Structures are given as C-alpha cells and as structure tokens.
Amino acid sequence: MIISTLGSHSSLQILYGAKKEGFTTSVITDKNRENFYKRFNFIDEVKSYNSLDEALDLINKNNEESVFIPHGSLIEYLGMDRVKRIKTPIFGNRNLFEWEANQHKKMSLLKMAKIKIPESFESPEDVDRLVIVKLPGAKGGKGYFIAKNKEEVKEGLNKLLEAKLIKSIDEVIIQEYVIGIPMYFHFFYSPIFKRVEITGMDIRYETNVDGLRRLPTNLISVEPTFVVAGNIPVIARESILPRAFEYAENFVNTVKENVPPGMIGPFCLESIVTDNLDIVVFEFSGRIVAGTNLYIEGSPYSWLYWDEPMSVGRRIAREIKISKLENKLGEVTT
Fold first, then answer.
1. Any known ligand binding at 73?
2. Which CATH class is domain 2-90?
3. One GO MF term, please (predicted)?
4. Is 206 labelled as part of a ligand binding site?
5. Which stretches of 220-285 are assigned E, i.e. beta strand?
6. How does residue 226 score in pLDDT terms, banded at 50, 70 and 90?
7. pTM above 0.85, yes or no
8. What's the fold here for domain 181-331?
C-alpha cells in the first residue's frame, strides 16, 4: 500500500512515519519544490505538478492502492472544489473539511460540544470590547487583525475587501480577544482502539506580533499581524489536562453526532489558558497540525501510550496498518 500526501505543511513527518511503519511513500508537490523532496530517502516517489488540476490527477492515480493523508495546506492549495473530487481514500473524515473551512460552522460545532469558547459578534456594530477578526480556512493567520472598537473593525474589514482577501464580511468571524497564553492541544481519536490520545501541544510563533514584544511600547507604531512562521514546544501543568481531555472527548462525541462517520485521527483544540487556568478554545483543526512537526520522535505524551518514538505522522500510519490487518480500513478512511 502507498501512503501519499501533498508536499507542504507536515508532509515530511507524515511520510517519515509511514516509512517507519513499512509503507511505500509518495509526495505530490509543486514543480518548484521537487528537488527539495528528492533529498529524503524515506520518500519513495516524488510526483511534481505544474497546475492544480494536474495535482488532483496525481492524487487520484492508483487510488485503489493508496491512502491519501490530508493536512492544513490541502484546501488552501487545491480549493474545496478539487478536494471534493479526490477519489483516493482519505485518512480521516473528509466531511469535516467544509466545517473547518467556515469559521461560523466551526465555532458552532465547538459550542455544541459544550466547550468554552470566546464570545462572537454577528456585526461590527455589536463590538464593545477588544476583538480579533479572523478569516476562513487555514491561512496561517494571514489577514487576521485586532480591533479595540467597532470603528476599527469596519476599517479593517474594508482593507480586507480592498485587498480581495475576502469577498464578503460574512466570511470572517469577529471574536472576543481573550487575554491569556496560547496553548494548542494535539489529540488523536482512534476508531480502532476507541480512545482519545493526547499527542503533544505547541505554541505558534507568529510574525510580527511576537517580534513586537521585543520593543518598548512607546516605539511600536505598527499593527500586529499573526502570520505563523514556526512552532514552539510546550508542556502543560498536569492539572490542566483533565479539562483538556474532557473537551477533546466532548468534541469527538459531537462530531460523531453531527458530521458522520465522526472524528478519525488527529485534531487540535486551539486554545487560550487564562490566569485562573481556564481553557478557552477559539478554534479547532480537524486533521494533523504543523505544531506536531516538533515531535518527529514523539512528544512526552505519546511515549505514555506507546513507549517508543511515535510522531503523529507515524501514529497515522500505525492506525492504517492495524486497520488493514484487521480488515477495518473503511473505519479510518472516507
């Protein structure tokens, strides 16, 4: 069997883990990145494309022999229309993609799961506190902005429209800016073992908001931006973990009820931890996140389950391997 993925985001980790589990590996990449991926001997096949339609054709080639692993760049690169035309079995729940791409649907799913979330504002006119305005999809923070009042929200939205980053203000979500520290909790739901596993956590390293912290306040004359450039490892106080697990299990149960066949594989609850150690979840990712790249030999948490190096990429491959041996591949792919 071939494990394939799109060349970007967490593809090296995915393919390295698949090779560790004995699979043939294949990366589908933009022609400009072909030489980069050829450097790694754990990638058996590098397929390059010149157009996005060609990329889709490559994903669908040999679809009966492959499992395709989605990550955060998939929809951002190919677009939802092409992703819907992927015929190759996808590890995970492809029905969750549309929920993830729509900020309002995304937050409604968290709310249904009884997870604490920031307050959202339907209209700029309703804004009465510090807010962050976020764009749909996995844009790595591009275009996000902070506003202190409704006037600043309107001004920022006009800039997004002029830059054609959005077509309508209905695409964005205006969310209360919760004061605290960011903490992104990585989880994995296994339909084979019927359990939620915590696989690690990270903090996003964002420009230029993180760079501005190095300057005295009186010298700052630019607005912060939130484009993600990297990730930083973090370990939570153990007393925080029971609530994080409660939220993760609530999320899994809610996805099962509302987005059949339910949660499969990795997901992330992107959170703020407040000064009273409360967890406020402001977003979720329904697939592998780039913060897991920190743990190519496994995080301190993954060792608790496996007692061996277990990255999320390898954990995906392990789930596929076990499901194939037990004739349950249909339970982990859609």
1. yes
2. alpha beta
3. ATP binding
4. yes
5. 226-233, 265-273, 279-285
6. confident
7. yes
8. D-amino Acid Aminotransferase; Chain A, domain 1 (3.30.470)
